[in-house]
Amino acid sequence: MPSPASPPTDQEITATFKLLLIGDSGTGKSSLLLRFTDDTWLQPDEVSATIGVDFKVKIVNVEDKRYKLTIWDTAGQERFRTLTSSYYRGAQGVILVYDVSNRQTFEHLQLWFTELDTYSSSRDVIKIIVGNKCDKDTSGVREVSRKDGEAFARRMGTLFIETSAKTKTGVRDAFVEVVRKIAETPSLWQKQQGPRPGAVLLNGEEEEVESSGVCSC
Amino acid sequence: MDMITDISTANPAAAAVGGLTSYAKATKAAVQLVQPQTLTNSYDIHCSMCRSLVLKRGVAKKQPSDSAVQLPLPAATQDPSTSTYPLVPGYLWVVNDMMAFENVGFTKAVPGGDDTRYLSCADCDIGPIGYHPARVPKAFLIAADRVRYNVV
């Protein structure tokens, strides 16, 4: 069945990108990750997540090209600020999430930018600010206007979008925009060597993702 | 809502036409899920709930359940008594590289244990459909009976 979720499987992968989701607890990062799916057949409450998902490997089609993404979710870690440089290392795209109904999560973005600047391995890393839970607009609980979000993004030189993981508004666009931008920024990924950039060893030590032509297979 | 593409209930021959085939149906219909020469998966492997593509054909190898990497898989439902899946699958599919997957989710390492990570569907989050044992860093295993096959 042809759909965005099931592209022709024989097509070559153009590139592999590492994306991070960061932002305060409760902004809906995990929901965004779950909702970033082209064809969800299940309602979220039908799915019982007993153990939190840490990261996903996911194929996405952007402009007729196939990209393989590893998308990392900080859920559960950010409260303790134990994110390490290894989490940031090698990431080409960062999705900074705040909750439009919680002003503080928006103001904290500044701290997340500081952390990102400290640990990020490339100055060119693509950033998008995502104002999540924009479905809360109608119920009058919005604390951050779209204008404020846009202005901040402009000041930080990043992309901006409002999303709702609940209604799926903008969710796919947020990821696609980041992928598109990374694809347009060859310095971020063309130096990648080896067969599986983005891969990491899961037992602490990260794999060399910026190796100098040494095949790691 | 019928979420699972149930291809055939009675006619094993029909199980090989269109849609996705469960492990049980494939076995009953004597479909060769394992490529005899290479011991790799003969068909694309999909999530049994939302059809998300997990592994392309030919990329995973059959891994017998009695091997050193074997680990019981918890029930795939919250109530273990209603789980239709055995704790120990008949066999598993193994890949040595996490980037071999098309779509897959990794849980956080289970704390207090041996740091096993379980694998889930990247699109609908159903799982576990397999696991990654910390003590075997290069093994990523999918339970053969918890996924469906694009038998063509």
Automatic annotation (TrEMBL), chain A:
Record-level Gene Ontology MF annotations: G protein activity; GTP binding
Domain of life of the organism encoding this protein: Eukaryota
Recorded catalytic activity of this chain's protein: GTP + H2O = GDP + phosphate + H(+)
Record keywords, A-Z: GTP-binding, Hydrolase, Lipoprotein, Nucleotide-binding, Prenylation, Protein transport, Transport
InterPro entries attached to this UniProt entry: P-loop_NTPase (IPR027417), Rab (IPR050227), Small_GTP-bd (IPR005225), Small_GTPase (IPR001806)
Keyword Ribosomal protein in annotation: no
Gene Ontology BP annotations: protein transport
The keyword GTP-binding is annotated on this UniProt entry: yes
Enzyme Commission no: 3.6.5.2
Recorded family membership: Belongs to the small GTPase superfamily. Rab family.
Name of the protein described by the UniProt record: small monomeric GTPase
Provenance organism: Powellomyces hirtus
From TrEMBL, chain B:
GO biological process, one term: small GTPase-mediated signal transduction
Entry-linked InterPro entries: Mss4 (IPR007515), Mss4-like_sf (IPR011057), Mss4/transl-control_tumour (IPR011323)
Alphabetized PROSITE patterns for the sequence: MSS4 (PS51796)
Gene3D superfamilies, alphabetized: Metal Binding Protein, Guanine Nucleotide Exchange Factor, Chain A (2.170.150.10)
GO molecular function annotation: guanyl-nucleotide exchange factor activity; zinc ion binding
GO cellular component, one term: membrane
Protein name as it appears in the record: Mss4-like protein
Organism: Powellomyces hirtus
